[in-house]
Design a protein that fits this description.
The structure holds 2 protein chains of 2 kinds. Chain A is built from 5 helices and 5 strands; from the N terminus they run βαβαβαβαβα. By secondary structure, chain A is α/β, with parallel strands linked by helices. By secondary structure, chain B is an alpha+beta fold. Chain B folds into 2 domains: 133 residues, no CATH class; 161 residues, 3-Layer(aba) Sandwich (Chemotaxis protein chec), CATH 3.40.1550.10. In chain B, strands 1, 2, 3, 4, 5, 6, 7, 8 and 9 form a 9-stranded antiparallel sheet that branches. The longest helix of chain B has 23 residues. Classes of the chains: A alpha/beta, B alpha+beta. At the A-B interface, helix 1 and helix 4 of A face helix 13 and strand 5 of B.
Chain lengths: 120, 297
Amino acid sequence: MAKILIVDDSRTSRRMLRTILEEMGHEIVAEAVNGEEGFVKYKELSPDLVTLDITMPVLDGIQALSLIKKHDPEAKAVMITAAGQRDKMIKAVKYGAAEFITKPYEKEVVEKILDEVLKS
Amino acid sequence: MIANIIVSYLINKGKISLDQYYQFFEELSKVRAKLGLIAVHEGLMTEYQADTVNMLQATMDLKFGDLAVEKGFLTSNQVQELLRKQADPYLSVAQVLENMGIMRLNDLDIMMKKYQVENEMSASSIEALKSDDIDRIVPLFLPAEADEYVAFATLAVKTLMRCVDNNVFPIKGYFAEEVKCQNGALQFVDGDPCLTAAMCGDGNSLLAAASTFGKEDFPSVNMDALDAIAELLNCICGLYASELSLQRITMELYPPEYDDTAEGIGGFKTLVFPMMLNDKLVNLLICIGEKLEFIQI
């Protein structure tokens, strides 16, 4: 079981992801609604993994990833994105994203990716 | 989609009741068009000949095709061709209407002619409609000068069918500078050209879509329900950006916005594409080249 922080501006998206992750047996230590709040909560809670939506107001997922990686180079971050954001995915890899999950969520895909990242 | 379009038209014309409407879809999932009906549709047999074979079938343990060949109504090759057409979506609709005693194929064909005239459609448009091919149907419901909107509109309809309501069907689209609505969500996608997409409605018209996509029973179209609609829009826009990326066109999605106090959405020339989604009237808005905004009271 891992401690996970979910960062996404969409309540629907957070709730859907939380349901899948809790069914997998993980603990959601907190949720954040933008990258800025996500970075604050990451520093405060030091989760095993953080999921970061790429498209968010205030501070987007890539900016938040950059801050998190500077704070904790070992941070495991999975980026959440709608399809079609190839350039942003490449940028996120540059900043150290471990993996990507494309919305809408497919439970089996989420499970597979999370398992792989947590084992790495 | 063809089933919904036809049956809704028949309801409007008083040809079927609301009870029959629901029964129709139950029956449609079970039915395959019978060979006799297809043969009449193809002009290979008369209704009288098909009825004769049907009656013979009731007393003999023989297939329709074999009996029709034996009676000299069809050749073996024609039977093979009819078997191939058994999954035809229009004929499946006709079969259910006939099974329910509502109308026979000839009557349905007459209704389709009326539909064609009322909607100013060409014969080839009606054939496209009967094909039940979404790529061919969606353009029929868009204005003539809406070519550049077709790809997004088609993708949106397909996504709505997959994620929300398989029975969604379009209503004739039009251009407007603004659309009045009580609630909705919109998303700006930057690129060359940029695009704004929105979904909006009145009262609780978006409720079923929000609940289905969000997998949550919302009591009304509140901000949480609109968040679900915004996520749905985000998926549609993402898929669109994904398709464009195959042509090396980069689009950047901005966070969706939603509002339940606005008076409408608009600002620039926008394609308004109304559709029946979960039996409710919902507007899909597409504006190419500009950013739309919520219009505040």
